[in-house]
From TrEMBL:
Gene Ontology CC entries for this record: ribonucleoprotein complex; ribosome
Keyword Zinc-finger on entry: yes
Organism phylogeny: Archaea, Methanobacteriati, Methanobacteriota, Stenosarchaea group, Halobacteria
Name assigned to this protein: Small ribosomal subunit protein eS27
The organism's place on the tree of life at top rank: Archaea
Cofactor annotation comment: Binds 1 zinc ion per subunit.
GO biological process, one term: translation
PROSITE patterns: RIBOSOMAL_S27E (PS01168)
Source species: Halobaculum roseum
NCBIfam families in UniProt: PRK00415.1
Zinc-finger ranges (C4-type): 10-32
GO MF annotation terms: zinc ion binding
Keyword presence, Protease: no
Pfam families: Ribosomal_S27e
Residues bound to Zn(2+): C10, C13, C29, C32
Length: 57
């Protein structure tokens, strides 16, 4: 199964950003720099709220 992308809302500034579900490095909010996802070796752990799943094509 290919990885999916998730639309995550930043807990600090409510910016919505698309994050790869198996991110290999920390993903930071493009607006305020808060960590939105951190790698766990498998699926990333999201710090913000996942509002939508975006299937990879
Ligand atoms: Zn933010």
């Amino acid at each position: 199964m290919a990885g999916s992308f998730f639309r995550v809302t930043c807990p600090d500034c409510e910016n919505e950003q698309v994050v790869f579900g198996k991110a290999a490095s920390e993903v930071n909010c493009a607006v305020c720099g808060t960590t939105l996802a951190r790698p766990t070796g498998g699926d990333a752990e999201f710090a913000g709220e996942v509002v939508e799943t975006v299937e990879a094509r």
